[in-house]
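Q: Could you fold this chain for me?
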Amino acid sequence: MTEIKIISGQTWHGRRGRVENDFKYSIDYLLFDPEKLEMSPWLLSKKGGFFYGINPLDYGGLNDLGAPKKWVLEVLKARKITCVSKVLLLAQPRILGHIFNPVSFWLCFDEADKLVVVVAEVSNTFGDRHSYLCCNDDLKPIRPEHRLKATKIFHVSPFQPIDGNYEFRFDIDLDKKIGIWIDLQMPGGGVLANLTGRIRKLRNRDILWSCIRRPLGSRRALALIHWQALKLYLKGARYRKRPSPPDIEVS
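A: Sure. Below is the predicted structure, expressed as C-alpha cells.
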C-alpha cells in the first residue's frame, strides 16, 4: 500500500470510578507510509505545510530528527523483532500549522500482511511523548480477540495517577476498517477509550471537506481535552502535578 488513506472516525472515552465522565466526538486520522508519499493528493503537503500536511518531525521519537519510520525500525531491531516487512502510521495530520496527536499507532505487518506489532505513541499536553510496544509473546498475528497488556509509566492526564495497566485490542482491516480499544485499569476505576472508522483513499475533496467540517483541526481536539479536564475538576477529581517523563522512549 502506497496510497494515503483517511479514516473519518469516532473516538469515545469513558472514565470509571468515583468521578465518572464520558464523551464522544468525530475525528480524522490518516493511514500512510511516511517514506512513500508520492501518490498523495496535491492538497496534502509532504512537509507539514500551513493548510493540511504531514511533517515527519511530528511523529516517532522526540530525537529521531524527522525520520520516524527509521526510528520504529530501530525500536524493532533493538528487541530482535525481525518478522516485520511493512510499517504504516495511523495518525492525525497537521492542519493550519498545528498538530496534537494524543495517540498515534505504528502498525507493523509481516510478509503475509498480518498485523504482528503495534507501537502506540502517546503524547501529553506538556510536550512529552512515550510509546508502548504491543505484540503477542510469540509474535503471532494480532487478532481482534487478543488483549495485549502494557504497564502504564507515562503521565497523560493530571486527573489520573501513573498507576495501572493498559489492555489494547486491535481490529485492523486495511481494505475496510480500523477498530482500536484501550482499557486503562487502575485501582478504584479506570478509563475506556476507542477509535473506530471506515478506511478509504484520501482525495483532495476529503481534505477540503475535513477542513470545512473541522476547520480547527487538532486545535479542536486540544480544546475538547481542556474542556473535559474542566468538567473533571468541577466534579471533584483530584489534580496531580506533572511528574518527570520516563527515561526510556518505549516500554
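A (continued): The CA atoms of residues 107 and 127 lie 23 Å apart.
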